């Protein structure tokens, strides 16, 4: 053991025991795995520990393999990135603006996320679904979240459709295409595309989630989709990592690597930081390429510092582990001496924080809504500290000025600047996410309602895009909703005709007689699906 590896092991100590799932780790430097170790158990029922040969489902981290396959097929002339998706999937709706393969690659298509659509439809993730069922759900969507190319919103549907296109133009199954074009040339013998969830897989780590004081099995029963069903090991991912430096795919040559590492751009020319299934970004001033994954009980992250020829891979079989936090901490340990030399500035400027008065804090707390994107941001006080809840994150907030807050301990930068309210307007926050376009969130007024008013919303609402119902009902004195046969969930009033349940936002519509006639439902990666009140 060395002082460096001792520091690394301490990061994983809470899982390094015989009664816990855990992680497999590989650290790569200058073309070699310089440290690999596993912490915790692969199978709690059979007392099998994790090892560097343990096989994990890497979830969305597998999108880079689908993207590479599309790039290779493009170089073979089977497709072009500017093909309309209707050329290859004619059953998709003909939206007002054409959607291209390039839009799918960079998540700029505006197509709604199918996993969110499944949730809103009441479809259970633990059931098995054929590709045709998911494609039918996608094809029923009459609207997009935005005009193709105008914005970027991560959507699993984009890579699901890329998988469909690859199969159709390659005239073979995705496992076969992946094997022929990527796995065999790189010698990734322990890696496979999981199109058969009943297949027996030696050395597979079982996926787990927390339940009460213990764990429960959390495995996926779906497979064969292009948005991420790769099974692999940290040792095999070393071979994938090395191909970025000396490409052996698609006939060889560095131009293929340059292509898949080139970020996309919006219609207005704004450059994104998402390339081909990879985030191209920076950490403390160092250039990085990275992608994380999470599905069922598995979590994963891969980060590469190409100039330093350092990479860190962390694969976990417990859904509460966040490998994307661990990989950068491991990288910081190995790059500590380099940082001390001061050869590069850090990406974040030194920030001085100030204390807010109780009245200043009171004026800021509340619930804010982004009407355009359907996102909600909560600002509240917990344990005497200002915190934010939004963008699927909980984060502490610190003030840099009386009307300016900065989120701490987040995977991307979040800045909040409060605009001085005009007499006729509510307080507004201008939010910048990861250096992207500023977004406007308006403070929502509270909406106290009595029991008689709750009854206005009760009914069954139907969406033909989802072929599903949302039931709004009273449970005692609580307004609730129910998706299909899912358990009843409570609705929290936010403003007049506006309710929230977690990341779900219910906005009810009224007709010319002031009667409720419909609701518009938003949920993260899906914006504004209309449900009409059934008569």
Oligomeric state of the chains in view: single chain
Overall strand count: 30
Radius of gyration: 24 Å
Provide the CATH superfamily of the largest domain: DD-peptidase/beta-lactamase superfamily
* First-to-last CA distance: 71 Å
Provide the domain count. 3
CATH top-level class of the largest domain: Alpha Beta
* CATH fold name of the largest domain: Beta-lactamase
- Which blocks of ≥5 consecutive residues have pLDDT under 50? 343-348
Main beta-sheet annotation:
9 strands, antiparallel
Helicity level, as a percent range? 10-25%
What does the average pLDDT come to? 89
Strand order of the largest sheet: 25-24-23-22-30-29-28-27-26
Shape-level CATH architecture of the largest domain: 3-Layer(aba) Sandwich
Shape: globular
Number of helices: 14
Q: Tell me the structural class.
A: alpha+beta
β-strand amount = 25-35%
Short synopsis of the structure:
This protein has 535 residues and is α+β, with helices and mostly antiparallel strands. The protein has 14 helices and 30 strands. Strand 16 and strand 17 form a beta hairpin.
